Structure prediction request, 121 residues.
Amino acid sequence: MTKAELREKLMSGHTMDELFHYTQGDECLIFKADKFALGDEILYIPDVGMNGIPMDTPVMRGEDIDLILPCCYTGDDFAQECRDADVDEKYAERLFWLCDWQHPSSVLDEGWPDDNDASEN
Prediction:
């Protein structure tokens, strides 16, 4: 699902619980796709509790949806994070696999791990 499709579904009364299958992150709930791909499909949503994302309550106001969408990361968002951090875009998939609860920018702020620290699937 793209961010535009998510906005449309939320505006029509769907809940985040209905739209995504959440899994256990690092002591929290996250959404994470089974594989990485560049593009505009949502692949990752970090710690829903910490980010105040309502799970089972409809969010139909545009202002409220505008607070949720920045927490929904696409493959292209991961690539942009890498470019912004002056890391080659080929690391976007690696960044995706390193995220297990936090925003991608937080992983990059912690310092890019060496090749031995990567946890790729």
Remarks:
- Residues 116-121 have pLDDT under 50 and may be disordered.
